[in-house]
Write the structure tokens for this entry.
Amino acid sequence: MKTDPPWNAFEAEENPYLTPNPNHIYANETKWNLARDMLERYTGTAPEGFQKQIVLTNFAHYLERFKILYGDSQSRGSAMSAVHSQSKGVSIINFSIGSPTAALIIELLATAEPKAVLFLGMCGGLHRSLEVGDFILPTAAIRDEGASQHHMPPQVPALPTFKVQKFVSQIIVEQGRDYRTGVVHTTDYRFWEFDEKFKAQLYEERALAIDMETATLFSVGFASKVAIGALLLVSDLPLKKGGIKTKASADQVFSAFTDLHLDIGIQAMSEIAERGEHIRHYRW
């Protein structure tokens, strides 16, 4: 189904510096309509089939638990899967792993015009005070990956939508739980744990945790006018002896923390439309 993208809300002023970037999804009609088709092809759900609040994950286990706890319907596309809950007003997507797919799903989701998106991801804890099972609400992310450079200049910081993070924080506090805040280092460098120079760089940055998607999601969300936040679960402590995640330890994390992680995220996305503050997208 072809629909008109929301140009009218973002029309350029006479000032040429305010002209929208034609590479950005909301400013290119051809790209917009192609992305709508791709969203259905990749996820199995057309844009109008998504709820207005969306949770993103990297893990099929999260999708299965969401389906059992809240789901009404499930779809499978060529590369991703989705489950939808009308009662919660939330859809969840497993977009797989890594920076390129993170950038792709945000651009495609822009055509569904979600009100809020929340990434429930896992990260490696870098600070000595962190423990497996801790929650991190990132205040920013370091863009040490390749995908975000195609969407925003390198000097632009990767920041979440503040009002999404603020509401997630409120839900965590209301549940009587704790969380940490700080900067997350996002990289596309696997097996960095064996690179002493890279580990020294992480220390100099004072990064609290490390992952593979957060900075991309924040940057492309900003470029695509998608309100996005993240709640990360510390799944391993890779700088400590024996702290690198294995299949056995990953299974333990899923068993112990998936339902809690989901519960916080789903409550936040389910209630943000009514209880959260209005999110405004600026014109560029």
Remarks:
- The first strand starts at residue 53 and ends at 57.
- The chain has one domain: 22-275.
- Helices lie at 29-43, 60-69, 99-110, 162-174, 196-205, 214-224, 247-275.
